[in-house]
Amino acid sequence: MPIYYISKVLNRVEGRYTPIEKMTLALVISARRLRPYFLSHPIGVKTNMPLKQTLEKPDTSVRLVKWTVELSEYNILYLPRTTIKAQALVDFILEMAGIPMEDTSNVER
């Protein structure tokens, strides 16, 4: 299963998006940059956010409606992210503290 890294610095307005909007923006940016791959292969998105449910009912934001239409042309599978007990605790603490999450998958146990 290939994994790609795409980077983008959020501008001041994008930095004020809700976490679900930031996640959707990341998916939209990835879809734009990797369009040939998104069109020719099913894409799996592992997340602990209710991304699929939000995109199915995007009545809260014009932005989300626009992004939902844009993402609807791709075969995207939204998969729940399985967590290790310690990772779930770290995710919870980071979420409550409002600290941006970094990649903790390479931390030795």
Describe the overall structure:
This protein is mostly helical and 109 residues long. The chain has a domain at 14-82. It is built from five helices and two strands. It has helices spanning 19-33, 35-40, 51-56, 62-71, 85-97, and strands at residues 43-47, 76-80. Strands 1-2 form a two-stranded parallel ribbon.
* Shape call: globular
Order of helices and strands: HHEHHEH
Mean pLDDT reading: 81
Largest pleated sheet: 2 strands, parallel
Total helical elements: 5
How large is the share of residues in beta strands? Answer: 5-15%
User: How many strands appear in the DSSP assignment?
Assistant: 2
The chain-level structural class is mainly alpha
- Rounded to the nearest angstrom, the radius of gyration is 15 Å
Strand order of the largest sheet: 1-2
Low-pLDDT residue intervals, each spanning 5 or more residues: none
Helix content range: 40-55%
For the record, give the distance between the C-alpha atoms at the N and C termini, rounded to a whole number.
Answer: 24 Å
Topology:
Elements: H1 19-33, H2 35-40, E1 43-47, H3 51-56, H4 62-71, E2 76-80, H5 85-97
Parallel strand pairs: 1-2
Organism: Sesamum radiatum (Black benniseed)
Protein name: Reverse transcriptase RNase H-like domain-containing protein
Keywords: Endonuclease, Hydrolase, Nuclease, Nucleotidyltransferase, RNA-directed DNA polymerase, Transferase
Question: Which short descriptors sum up this protein?
Answer:
endonuclease activity, 109 residues, DNA/RNA_pol_sf, RT_RNaseH, mainly alpha, two-stranded parallel ribbon
